[in-house]
């Protein structure tokens, strides 16, 4: 049972991290695309790459933090 609850916590951490990272990545990608005057439809690709990259990295770190925190009992 302890492993299942830990797995659920890590999964929730990855999901929350992905959502927050995706939102921040979308805002940052839009800002950068406008700032650097990315032409035409390349803006959509640039914003998408930034969104997915940010979501993946932040989700990974929040999931790892949840995994580390799982072993601690207070």
From TrEMBL:
Gene Ontology cellular component terms for the protein in this record: TIM23 mitochondrial import inner membrane translocase complex
Highest taxon above the source species: Eukaryota
Membrane-crossing segments per the record: 12-34, 46-68
Keyword line: Membrane, Transmembrane, Transmembrane helix
GO biological-process terms attached to the record: protein import into mitochondrial matrix; protein insertion into mitochondrial inner membrane
Major localisation: membrane
Entry keyword annotation includes 4Fe-4S: no
Subcellular location: Membrane
Family statement drawn from the similarity comment of this UniProt entry: Belongs to the MGR2 family.
Protein name: Reactive oxygen species modulator 1
Species of provenance: Trapa incisa
């Amino acid at each position: 049972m302890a492993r299942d609850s830990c797995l659920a916590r890590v999964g929730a951490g990855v999901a929350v991290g992905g959502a927050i990272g995706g939102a921040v990545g979308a805002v940052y990608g839009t800002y950068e695309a406008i700032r650097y005057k990315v032409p035409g439809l390349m803006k959509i690709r640039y914003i998408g790459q930034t969104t997915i990259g940010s979501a993946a990295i932040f989700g990974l770190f929040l999931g790892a933090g949840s995994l580390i925190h799982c072993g601690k009992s207070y």
